[in-house]
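Our consortium's second objective concerns turning raw sequence data into structural hypotheses that experimental partners can test. To show how far this objective has progressed, the report includes one record in full. It was chosen at random from the queue rather than selected for favorable results. The single chain below, 81 residues long, was entered without modification.
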Amino acid sequence: MSQHLSDTILRYLQNRMPDYPFDMTVDVAFVDELVEDFPNADILEEIKAFRWYHDNSPVSRVRCIRNAIRRWVVNGAKNRF
């Protein structure tokens, strides 16, 4: 797994996702798991698409943001096959 990729995704969640409840301990494990579980997916692009699909305020529209992001990535992976 690319540490650079994980670091890039973490920085995006922390700095670019409005109102995202960033927690280094939780989000390192979350991002590492996404990258590991979906090696053929562009996780950063999926997260960006998720953000903009929700008009730049996904946190206000979903109850559990990490679960919603994971579901978004899962659905994106299904659509690629």
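The partners drew two points from this record. The chain has one domain: 3-80. DSSP finds four helices and no strands in the chain. Both points have been shared with the crystallography group to help prioritize constructs.
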